[in-house]
Amino acid sequence: LKSKVVFVFGGVMDIAQDMPNIIRLIKSTYNLPNIFFLFMGTGSQIKNIKDKFNLYNIKNFLILENLPTEDYYFLLNYCSVGLVSLSPSFKTQNFPGKILSYMSAGIPILGSINKGNDLKDIIELNNCGLISINKNDDDFKNNAIKLYNDQNYRNFLGKNSETILKQEFTTEIACEKIIKLVN
Predict the structure, then answer these.
(1) In terms of Cα–Cα distance, which of 157, 117, 109, 154 is closest to 133?
(2) What percent of the chain has pLDDT over 90?
């Protein structure tokens, strides 16, 4: 994996994550040299993902199911970009936990999310990654290519991911915010 630009999708792979969205992205970027897709997690869509990759003859991927947590975090260190996909049918805010693991690994986030989700502003205003609205496949692909092509940009966004994690999303910070609200 060291010679590859590794896009990782970690965690649950179910209907809520709109895995066909990720499959479309991979299909549209398949021919980029040195791009690789790593899936780590569980979910009802894994068989569908494998079937689609076989159908499209996609070979630049690996799916690791039921991976121990320590192995998951170890492998994140070899990844370049963290993938997030949320179903366009969501009508509420959603902050996938996988984002925090990507931030802790210091990698940028590439997302395609539901319309009206504040996650877009959080990620982009803090320069942690690039977010598009689900069903806008061109934006999702263009953002992926931008991250694929520019290691310095990935490093910049990844450092910002780590920083915002420490500034906004630690247990201590969450407790302080709750206490302020209660008082």
Answers:
(1) 117
(2) 82
pTM for the whole structure: 0.92
Alpha carbons 118 and 129: distance in angstroms, whole number: 14
pLDDT value, residue 168: 83
Q: In three state form, how does the secondary structure of the chain look?
A: CCCCEEEEEECCCCHHHCHHHHHHHHHHHCCCCCEEEEEEECCCCHHHHHHHHHHCCCCCEEEEECCCHHHHHHHHCCCCEEEEECCCCCCCCCCCCHHHHHHHHCCCEEEEECCCCCHHHHHHHCCCEEEEECCCHHHHHHHHHHHHHCHHHHHHHHHHHHHHHHHHCCHHHHHHHHHHHHC
The mean per-residue pLDDT over the stretch 20-39 comes to 95
